[in-house]
Amino acid sequence: MNKRRGPRTELIHGGIERSQFGETAEPIHMTSGFIYERAEQAEDRFKDRDQGFMYSRYGNPTVRTFEERMMALEGAEAACATGSGMAAVHAAIMCQMRSGMRVVAARLLFGSCRYILTDILTRFGVEIVLVDGRDLAAWKEALSVPTDLVFFETPGNPTLELVDIEAVSRMAHDAGAKVVVDNVFATPMLQRPLALGADIVAYSATKHIDGQGRCLGGIVLCSKDFHENQLHPYMKHTGPSLSPFNAWVLLKGLETMDLRVERHVASATRLARHLEGLGGIERVIYPGLESHPQYELATRQMDGGSTLLGFYIEGGKERTFRFMNALELILISNNLGDAKTLLTHPATTTHSKLSEAERAELDIGDNYVRLSVGLENVEDLIEDIERAIAA
Ligand SMILES: *Cc1c(COP(=O)(O)O)cnc(C)c1O
216 CB less than 6 Å from ligand 1? Predict the structure, then answer.
C-alpha cells in the first residue's frame, strides 16, 4: 500500500486495483469462484504458497478494495468485510470466544449487540458483566479480575452516552482483555478507536459508509495477527461474506463520506442548539453541546458531536407518537446515517426487547426519540419539528 496519505485522498483512491481496461471507477468482480491456470496453482493457493483469490467466501477483489480503503482510513493492519454490521460484531466477538471466558461490556448497546452477549454467549458458559459505560470506577471494578474481552459502543445507541476509549482500553489491557469497539455512531470521520488504544473496530457499513440507505454491509478492522489467527479463519468457515456488488456500493459511499458527515454534524449541531430552547421538548442529548454531561470527553476523543441527536418530548408515549405522526418531512425509521432525516422511537422498536426496568436504567423513556440528521436544509427540519411539536 502507499505511504500514508490524507483521509480524504484514501476515501477516493484507497485500495484501487485497476483491471487491464484501466477503468476510472472501481471494477465489480461479481464472481463466486476463480480459476487456476494449472492444478499446481490451485494446490499452491490452498497451501498459502500463492496469494491469489480462490473463492469469494474467502476473499474477492472488489471486497478487498473496500477492505483496503477502510484499513487506510483507520490505520489498521487488516480487515474482513461482512454482509451486515451484525455479522461484523458477531464475527469480531465469536472468533475469540471459548467457554469459561469473561466479557465486560457497556450496558447501553444496540439491541442485537446486547443479544449476542446476554442471549448467545451465556449459552456457552461465558460470563457477561454489564457496566455503566460512562463510569470509569465501574469499569475499574469490573476489570479488577482477569477478563478476556471488553465490548462497547461510543456514542452508544440510542442515548449517545460516551465511553472513554483510552482509559477503558488501558484498564482492559491490564486485565488481559482485548477491546472491541462498535464505532458506528461516531463514523470513521469523527473517531479512530485504534489510535486511542482499542484492538478491534467493528462497523455497520449500512449506516454512514453507504450513507444513502441502499444496502447492508459491515467490516471488522484489526491487527494482522488477530486477522490471520482468529478472525479470517472464523469468517472463511462460517461465511458472513460481503457481496462484491454491495462492496462496490460502499466504495462509492466512502468517496463522499467526509463531505456527508461534515454536513450531518453541522446540521445536527444547529438543530440540537435550536431544540434546546424549544417549548414542548424536555431535554436534548447531543455530545457536541456544552450541556452534554460528557462534553469534555466528546471534545477530547471525537472530531465532532455525532450525526445523531436525541430528545425527550414533554409528556408520555401518546404525545410522543402524536408528534411523530405529525412529522411530514422527517421519516419514521429505525435506520440511521442516511441522506434522509430519520426518526426512531427506541422504546418500542430497537430497544423493545429490554425489560421496562432495563429501559429505565438506560434512560430510554417512552418520550425519547432518536434523530439521525440527514442532508436536507436544516431550516426545513426545524420547521417540520416545530410544526409537529405544536400539533
Ligand atoms: C445498525 C447497527 C448495528 C448493526 O448493523 P446492521 O448493518 O444493521 O447489521 C450494529 N451496531 C450499531 C451501533 C448499529 O447502529
Answer: yes
CA-nearest residue for atom 7, ligand 1, is 85
Distance CA(190)–CA(183), nearest Å, equals 9
Domain match, 276 and 333 both: yes
Bridge partners (DSSP) of residue 110 are none
Best of 184, 200, 214, 249 for a ligand 1 pocket test (most atoms within 8 Å of beta carbon): 184
Tabulate helix, strand, coil % of the chain (nearest 5).
Answer: 40, 15, 45
Question: Ligand 1 centre from 391 Cα, in Å?
Answer: 32
Give the CATH number for residue 381. 3.90.1150.10
Whether the CB of 182 sits within 6 Å of ligand 1: yes
Which has the closest alpha carbon to 252: 16, 7, 1, 6? 16
Q: Same structural domain for residues 118 and 104?
A: yes
Q: What is the pLDDT of residues 315-352, one digit of tens each?
A: 999 999 999 999 999 999 999 999 999 999 999 999 99
- Residue 265 CA to ligand 1 center (angstroms) comes to 19
d(CA 171, CA 163): 13
**Domain check: are 373 and 315 in the same one?**
yes
Task: Report angle CA 194, 216, 51 to the nearest 5 degrees.
Answer: 60
Pocket test for ligand 1, best of 154, 157, 333, 342 (most atoms within 8 A of CB): 157
CA geometry: angle at 200 spanning 167 and 89, to 5°? Answer: 115
Q: Residues in the chain with pLDDT < 70?
A: 1-3
| Parent domain of 235 | 7-254
Beta bridge partners of 221: 79, 201
Arithmetic mean of pLDDT over the chain: 96
How far, in Å, is the centroid of ligand 1 from the Cα of 344?
14
